[in-house]
Design goal:
about 120 residues, mainly alpha
């Protein structure tokens, strides 16, 4: 089981990452709005470039949103006292795994078993 000190360290890491993502999403939204305003006066080539940039931005925003959901879920599990337990078998997730990937929900064994079933 994880020590309270380790859980607090992981929680701080999650909150820090959450703040970074929220700031990045806010910045991307502001940039999109600025580019949309600029596009109104641009030519066709500018429009094509703008569309491509917007598509890339949408993909990145989707990835950030997914990561944000993972972080929120991990923070919820910390508050509920279930953080660090595998959602499949209920056994503790390895500390090294949680330190490397703090939003992990499965132990290595269950993750590998799941991946083997896919292939």
């Amino acid at each position: 089981m994880l020590s309270q000190e380790t859980i607090e360290k992981i929680k701080a890491k999650l909150v820090e990452e959450k703040i970074k993502i929220l700031k990045r999403l806010q910045k991307e939204t502001e940039e999109r709005n600025r580019l949309r305003d600029k596009q109104a006066v641009g030519d066709e080539a500018d429009s094509a470039t703008q569309l491509e940039l917007e598509n890339i931005s949408n993909v990145l925003s989707s990835m950030d949103a997914a990561r944000l959901r993972q972080i929120e879920e991990a923070l919820r599990r910390i508050e509920e006292g279930t953080y660090g337990l595998c959602e499949v078998c209920g056994e503790p997730i390895e500390e090294a795994r949680l330190l490397a990937q703090p939003f992990a929900t499965k132990c290595i064994y269950c993750l590998e078993t799941e991946e083997k079933k896919r292939y």
